[in-house]
Amino acid sequence: MTLHKLKDIQNSIDVRRTPVQKVGIRNLRYPILVLDRRNASQDTVATINMFVDLPHRFKGTHMSRFVEIINHCRGRVSVHQIGNILKTMIKKFESVTAHIDIRFPYFIEKSAPVSGAKSLMDYDCAFLAAMDAKKKRNPLDLILEVAVPVTTLCPCSKEISKYGAHNQRSKITIQVRTLKLVWLEDLIEIAESAASAPLYSLLKREDEKSVTETAYKNPRFAEDIVRSVAVRLRADPRISWYQVETENFESIHNHNAYALVTGTRK
Asked: In the chain, what are the domains?
């Protein structure tokens, strides 16, 4: 049977008159190019989700078209192409809205605090974008996200204990909408500065001593962290909206501590 004789089931009429808000593909692994403050750009591999709305008249969506659209980027997806990708999705699928989530590991070379030993530290980052064709002004909504692992030490534990204080690994997640370019490194540095101490992939004994003592000198509640990060983001003229979350993976409790702050720059 020739291709033009194959029946297009997806394009057939659906009589239930029920539109679908999101339909598409998830967990597509694909190479992307990310801006790098030190090296201009960095290659990494992303996990991509792509969705459009489905008008009530169509029975289904042509799933292969999502991958075709990404492939038209010639194997290189970058933040600069996100707007065009979403426009193409809306046109190809005859939809009103389009969404793309691009999640990827981002690597930064860090030097240990005393020995200076260099190693690569990875951070989970994302571009979360949506477009609404009904909006004539600013149809593109783009959120930049970084998730930063850190060390936190409990101020209460330090205050009431004779020996030491309980500490744990924590994760600070920052989302921002921006007016100008904001480097991933900028957000990572803001998060790490709000913690008791940063994390490193490689530490010698003298570095481990330094990180442990630094954390002890800088106890932080989850609430302290989100407030400190929010103050920095609110003062940054490049940022129009922010959301900050922190989760402490508690070392002496069978639950985690959590805090969240959102805001806009006035």
From this structure: 14-264 (3.10.270.10)
